[in-house]
Amino acid sequence: MNYLEYLSVWNKLSDEHRHRLQSCCTTKKFRKGEILHNGSNDCTGLFLILSGKLRAYILSSDGREITIYSLFERDICLLSASCIMNSIRFDITIEAEKDTEVIIIPSEVYKSVMQESAPLANYTNEIMASRFTDVMWLIDQIMWQSFDKRLANFLLSEALTEENDTLKITHETIGKHLGSPREVVTRMLKYFQNEGVVKLSRGMIEITDKRKLESLADE
């Protein structure tokens, strides 16, 4: 199977452009917790996710992590090849949040095809616009939403993604996603537990009242 057909623009490319992209691709597997890309100087290439889950995050000046978006099967990660975008640099880290398999498209090949192909250039711009929207949403959450609402939204999102109301996740991991110290996450989760919204156990969080959690998220 040609997994590059996952690209929605694939059928709009010329035979020559499809051949150039397909002939240079490599497939690689990453284990959970492994770093795929680190910083703007690491122009690794584009990742097309075949399976698993990736997390893109940035670091604060004091070393705290905050997730800016997650990537799932059939998503493409452009910021791991930020050198293809003139005058744009992203100090971003890409980590495998689960065991993940990706196709890697070398940056220089993708850029050369993009410069010749209007459909691929438009597709690339659409993805960049979508990621910018994700970042703007994150900024809005951090600046204007209280932490209890952000945490409630995060738990609901994780439950939806995992299709399970019992989440295997640590307080420290949640803190990395939300850019908050583990102690702050623990205090808020204990408040949620006292309110009957969740049940806490070692390395696990069970959502016991999803309707009330949704109410917290929407207040």
TrEMBL record:
InterPro entries per record: cNMP-bd_dom (IPR000595), cNMP-bd_dom_sf (IPR018490), Env_Response_Regulators (IPR050397), HTH_CRP (IPR012318), RmlC-like_jellyroll (IPR014710), WH-like_DNA-bd_sf (IPR036388), WH_DNA-bd_sf (IPR036390)
Gene Ontology CC entries for this record: cytosol
GO molecular function, one term: DNA-binding transcription factor activity
PROSITE patterns per UniProt: HTH_CRP_2
Domain HTH crp-type: from-to ranges: 145-211
Record CDD domains: CAP_ED
Domain of life: Bacteria
Keywords for the protein's UniProt record, in alphabetical order: DNA-binding, Transcription, Transcription regulation
Coiled coil: none
Alphabetized Gene3D superfamilies for the sequence: Jelly Rolls, Winged helix-like DNA-binding domain superfamily/Winged helix DNA-binding domain
Protein name per Swiss-Prot or TrEMBL: Crp/Fnr family transcriptional regulator
